[in-house]
Amino acid sequence: MTQTTPESESAAPTARRPLVELQNVNKHFGSFQALTDIDLTIPEGQVAIVIGPSGSGKSTLCRTINRLETIDEGGRILIDGKVLPEEGRALATLRAEVGMVFQSFNLFAHKSILENVTVGPIKVKGIKKAQAEKEAMELLERVGVAQQAKKMPAQLSGGQQQRVAIARALAMKPKVMLFDEPTSALDPEMVQEVLDVMVQLAREGMTMVVVTHEMGFARKAGDRVIFMDAGRVLEDTDPESFFTAPQHERAKNFLGKIL
Ligand code: ADP
Ligand code: MG
């Protein structure tokens, strides 16, 4: 929480190093094509908002970036310049560089809050328990749930659980964070506390891909809006242009429904 440069205030594309690159990414589920010809480069420090109707491929996009889904032959995904390997130890290492936060918080139900945050660093990165716990407590402090460290996930509110999920992802020291509709399963009064944590992360310069329909967040923290429809990127522009002057009929329709 030391760096205060608001990265989000610059919408200009920069010469910053590309952290996530999708090149000619296509994804079929059987004969159904969920992603078509996706080419995207997310530079370091950018907050990219992914928006689009249900079924447009937003989750699939996130899941391919994290190799939770394979992609069709011919395409490539690079994380910090390295091609995502198919499997094995190299995949685990690279995947640790990509933190993911899901709509359903997905905490380990039978582990305490603290253990939820330490298990990855201990098991995947071989960090000593004491060190992992120290870092985990700092992270829980950052997201405002340090008081709950000894509790079990079910004892926390949805907003608290989602903040723990963010801390858990951050504990792996990822280079990029993916958020797939992180607030859409929350009661309305808990949405803001999670968005506040995400805004703070963005301000600290974290590279983020965020699937969300939260316009306020997109405008405040987003550098870029990627509008998807039927598996394609239809618009890719800055938030202000997207929300005030969407180019495609489908984008206009979509905005008409959610605003
Ligand atoms: P979004 O997140 O934008 O709502 P998804 O990425 O979840 O969309 O899904 C895009 C399309 O791919 C949808 O039509 C969905 O039904 C289909 N799809 C997603 N995952 C699978 C799967 N494992 N098997 C078959 N079809 C899938
Ligand atoms: Mg989805």
Automatic annotation (TrEMBL):
Residues 20-255 form the ABC transporter domain. GO terms for molecular function: ATP binding; ATP hydrolysis activity; ATPase-coupled polar amino acid-transporter activity. It is found in: Cell membrane. The keyword Transmembrane does not apply. It holds the Pfam family ABC_tran. Its EC number is 7.4.2.1. GO terms for cellular component: plasma membrane. Keywords: Amino-acid transport, ATP-binding, Cell membrane, Membrane, Nucleotide-binding, Transport. InterPro entries: AAA+_ATPase, ABC_ATPase_HisP-typ, ABC_transporter-like_ATP-bd, ABC_transporter-like_CS, MetN_ABC_transporter-like, P-loop_NTPase. Belongs to the ABC transporter superfamily. This is ABC-type polar-amino-acid transporter.
